[in-house]
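User: Here's a structure from my thesis project, written as structure tokens. My advisor, Dr. K., wants to see whether a designed sequence matches the one we expressed. Can you design one independently, without my sequence as a hint?
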């Protein structure tokens, strides 16, 4: 196991009716920027619960944060935050709203070009405190310090992270899952599943506890994934989906072990280019990335096959069958398996991916640095 530091200061508040605890977790005298998406929270009753919980608190609202939050939209929120002297942000939504709100929190006090937050050129020294009310289990953003922001004008989707972006608190009420559209639930299950794989399907590193925690998340998602999509009002199913998605990316299973993230980095490019759902890109790219890098990942793929899918045989046999099982699981949930099923421009993707990886100097991605621009291109070619 490698050396590591574990820091996660998020106060996680989990369970039915816990939205009522918002005001007791916001500092006295705070002026709150309430951020949310397209208005679904007003249809499912979450907005009313939040407003009731914020009674007596000065609130300024900002709505319209998109899936794959757009830089231009977030900059409008930054301008509002500065003009209103906001000193606390409450994000009510899924990963996109929370990610966008993290950007707002660090961009508001920034004196330079805010795009530098995404390119790494800006120095983040302060942030407006942030709290969240999670409405879509998927990204784990409610309990980590990372975020991803898009800029459609230049077809970019870039991640950033900073310890200042950890939410002060996050409220997770599983009853919100009941109102989610099927497409969002499918994306959420796949996103959480692949988050776990990115930190697990690498190479053995003498970390049996991390491995088994990761495996427990994967097994749980396999057991409940299809059921929760078909029965989102089942509180027990919803609870386990929500907690699994949070655990998949709150930093715990990545400590002391290598991580990959190649599937995500290629997937982000496909989303930026073709507006394909993030979870869908992961379902397409993940299995083909594992096939391409099979020799370097064979031991962990075989472990995945034996411990998660109960397969038997040699490492070679079990590892290859595990990849097929992954793809089968994604398909069972309703995911497409090819880029061409989602855009008529799929043939352009490999060369563009090669150019973008080269431009970003992403020359050695993955736990062993094996994903070059050329290899990324080959993985995308397999996925057309």
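Assistant: Designed independently from the structure alone:
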């Amino acid at each position: 196991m490698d050396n590591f530091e574990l820091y996660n200061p998020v106060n996680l508040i989990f369970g039915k009716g816990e939205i009522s605890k918002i005001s007791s977790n916001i500092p006295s005298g705070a002026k709150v920027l309430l951020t949310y998406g397209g208005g679904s929270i007003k249809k499912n009753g979450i907005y009313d619960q939040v407003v009731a919980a914020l009674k007596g608190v000065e609130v300024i609202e900002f709505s319209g944060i998109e899936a794959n939050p757009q830089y231009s939209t977030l900059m409008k929120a930054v301008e509002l935050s500065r003009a209103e002297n906001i000193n606390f942000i409450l994000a009510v939504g899924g990963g996109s709203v929370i990610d966008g709100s993290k950007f707002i929190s660090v961009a508001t006090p920034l004196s330079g070009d805010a795009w530098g937050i995404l390119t790494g050129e800006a120095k983040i020294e302060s942030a407006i405190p942030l709290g969240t009310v999670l409405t879509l289990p998927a990204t784990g953003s409610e309990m980590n310090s990372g975020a991803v922001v898009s800029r459609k004008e230049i077809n970019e989707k870039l991640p950033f992270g900073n310890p200042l972006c950890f939410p002060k608190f996050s409220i997770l009420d599983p009853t919100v899952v009941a109102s989610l559209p099927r497409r969002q639930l499918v994306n959420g299950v796949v996103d959480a599943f692949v988050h776990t794989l990115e930190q697990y399907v690498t190479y053995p590193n003498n970390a049996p506890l991390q491995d088994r925690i990761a495996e427990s998340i994967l097994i749980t998602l396999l057991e409940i994934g299809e059921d929760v999509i078909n029965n989102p009002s089942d509180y027990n199913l919803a609870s386990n989906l929500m907690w699994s998605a949070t655990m998949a990316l709150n930093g715990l299973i990545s400590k002391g072990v290598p991580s990959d993230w190649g599937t995500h980095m290629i997937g982000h490019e496909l989303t930026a280019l073709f507006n394909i759902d993030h979870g869908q890109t992961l379902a397409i790219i993940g299995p083909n990335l594992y096939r391409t890098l099979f020799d370097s990942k064979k031991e962990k793929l075989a472990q995945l096959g034996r411990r998660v899918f109960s397969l038997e045989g040699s490492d070679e046999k079990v590892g290859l069958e595990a990849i097929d099982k992954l793809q089968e699981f994604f398909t069972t949930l309703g995911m497409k398996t090819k880029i061409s099923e989602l855009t008529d421009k799929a043939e352009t993707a490999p060369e563009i991916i090669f150019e973008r990886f080269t431009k970003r100097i992403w020359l050695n991605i993955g736990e062993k640095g094996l994903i070059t621009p050329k290899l990324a291109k080959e993985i995308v070619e397999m996925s057309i």
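When you compare it with your expressed construct, this may help: The chain has a mean pLDDT of 96.
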